[in-house]
User: What shape does this take?
Amino acid sequence: MTIKANDNRDFNESGDRSERNDIDVRAEFAAFGVSRGTLSATEFAELLEKNGARLVGVTGRRHIVPEALTAVESAARTASRALVAAAEEDGRPIYVATGLAIGADQLAAKLVLEARAEAAARNAASPLRLVALLPMSVAEYRRDFSTKPGTGETTSASELNDFNRYLASADLVVEIEPTAANVERTKRGEPLDRTAQYAALGDFLVERSRLLWAFWSGDASNVKPGGTTDVVLRKTRRLAGVGDSENAGSAQIPPTLQNSQNAENVGSVGSAGNVGNAGSVGNIENVGSVGNVDNVGNDALEAITEAICCVATPEVLRFKNPDGTKTRVPESTENAGKLAFWTSSTDAPPKFEEAENVAEPLKRFWKTK
Assistant: This one.
């Protein structure tokens, strides 16, 4: 069945798509019946199946500790280049799907475009394809870049401009369909349940990503539906039963990742306990390291079909005080600039290592069938 993409011009305010994919990429999509434009999540899933493409799904923190940003970007670039190297040897493109939210999502998009520019400088084509995987329609999603979700407060114009710029550079734009409940809400003239749409986006990342590229500190104390921690924990559970989504949800994960609490519900900063150590889960030093992946036999490695690559990304946490105000506390930057890579729930929580140590196992994983 041919996928009929909606070839509209709603990618940025001016409709300019001159920065989008080159002729080779257009031909690649055209071969599978896709014109440049917007796909639904269902159509995108069909595209992945039809052309055998493998997906890297991005989930990440929005409010990265400023002092850690350079180190986080450097580690993420190491992971990106490992994927490029694997794809160039493999000969197949890699779809990198990001929601283009501020922070980690846009950083991942930046690195995909950087890889595109580096390939062009060598008169070559980049194997990375930037997919804007949005939790709702473009028009509706733009509201999250004009006002702060749930507050109505106006954001800076630069946030919306950045979103439009990355959107215009995407090779594909994919919109998650409204949930059944949101379809009914729309019929009744009620506003969209945005949390449900973000959760649906998380579902897609968990179920469809061969590699989940997570920008996360490893701290599981703040879990929100569709949020970074939620997506990582669910993907970790899935690793215990890959290919069996029915059983993956009930798979066991380490106790250190089970007793999660929502930081927004902490009574006060004083009662938050180990806020000073946020970013490093209790027994993180005692879990198996990525080095174990190097010792996996070829047959066993072939059987591994999904994994998580985590960039240690400290965030500025917001704790709710008894009087309703919020106190901002930055997570520890100790692991910033490091990576973790795991293919089994028994490897979690992650042990962060120097980024260079993770690059080769990540490359080897991606080249497996």
About this structure: The chain has 14 helices and eleven strands. The CA atoms of residues 144 and 150 lie 9 Å apart. The first strand starts at residue 38 and ends at 40. The chain has one domain: 43-367.
